[in-house]
Amino acid sequence: MSTGDEIAPKVRSILDAARERSGGGERVTVDARSLPAAVERAEADGRVPVIAEVKPTSPTTEGERDDDPVELAESMVAGGATALSVLTEPEHFGGSTDALERVRAAVDVPVLRKDFVVREAQLDAVEADVVLLIVRFLDEEGTDDLATLLEAARDRGFQVLVETHTAAEVERALDAGAEIVGVNNRDLAELEVDLETFEDVAPEVPENVTLIAESGITTRNDAVRMRGAGADALLIGSAIMDAAGGGDVESNTRRFATAGADAEVADHPTDEPTGDAVTREDDE
Ligand SMILES: O=P(O)(O)OC[C@@H](O)[C@@H](O)c1c[nH]c2ccccc12
């Protein structure tokens, strides 16, 4: 069921580069920090579980942040991030395995490796607590299949975030044995974001699976909306990194980690960077 032509040219080039990339040499063995446990701890102390993403740039981002990834990561944790995501894709996202290694050594929250892993050997590039596998990209020539990669990742000790975009992909993820499922609001054909994607797909995901809303969460309203639609955690990159504005990553993270806490909403009436200052605190 290869539908390769529907992938945006920019994404095609990312994938081509990913397929070329080699593995890490020696097989890694990871003692992973539990993401589901971190999510539960955040809930228990009243934080919105936010996975904050160290993403220097992206094909859809204007500008690039060249701050030290460790400083960014520490600011995110100080702002209440439950876990971190670190891009390791070098060519299109400004990431590196070195950045991930340094970040993971500096913080004690779970760290997700954000990359386009398509072959088993690529799992060995660097240790992380969670690796990302993208369903859409694993039915292509020159890639290993999802179930094989999922098992290979778990054999190494990784937890696995399986990224989906449609109900059919959720089914594939669950069939392969996924326990952490992400629904990406960004469509990889047009690169457009639509938060309705998560709302449509979330009901397909059973309760016992950790469900993550990915991409396009820009305002506290968006955060409340995704939580209302069933997200256990929110993966937020651009709005926290604020590559164009160079804003304060710690307070950006806090803004989301406290979304839905009435007092905080009232405290920061002008918090929204997009002019979307209406909040739905009565929702929670
Ligand atoms: O910057 P945003 O819109 O908050 O999105 C973060 C994250 O979801 C996005 O970076 C992402 C989702 N899936 C990916 C796969 C590869 C690289 C990046 C991603």
TrEMBL record:
Start and end residues of each stretch annotated as Disordered: 260-284
Pfam families membership: IGPS
EC number(s) on file: 4.1.1.48
Pathway(s) per entry: Amino-acid biosynthesis; L-tryptophan biosynthesis; L-tryptophan from chorismate: step 4/5
Enzymatic class: lyase
Reactions that this protein is recorded to catalyse: 1-(2-carboxyphenylamino)-1-deoxy-D-ribulose 5-phosphate + H(+) = (1S,2R)-1-C-(indol-3-yl)glycerol 3-phosphate + CO2 + H2O
Domain of life: Archaea
InterPro entries assigned to the protein according to its UniProt record, in alphabetical order: Aldolase_TIM (IPR013785), Indglycph_syn_Halo_TrpC (IPR054875), Indole-3-glycerol_P_synth (IPR045186), Indole-3-glycerol_P_synth_dom (IPR013798), RibuloseP-bd_barrel (IPR011060)
Domain Indole-3-glycerol phosphate synthase intervals: 6-244
This protein's record includes keyword Amino-acid biosynthesis: yes
Coiled coil location: none
GO BP: any one term: L-tryptophan biosynthetic process
PANTHER family: INDOLE-3-GLYCEROL-PHOSPHATE SYNTHASE, TRYPTOPHAN BIOSYNTHESIS PROTEIN
Family from the record: Belongs to the TrpC family.
NCBIfam families linked: Indglycph_syn_Halo_TrpC
Name of the protein: Indole-3-glycerol phosphate synthase
Gene behind this protein: trpC
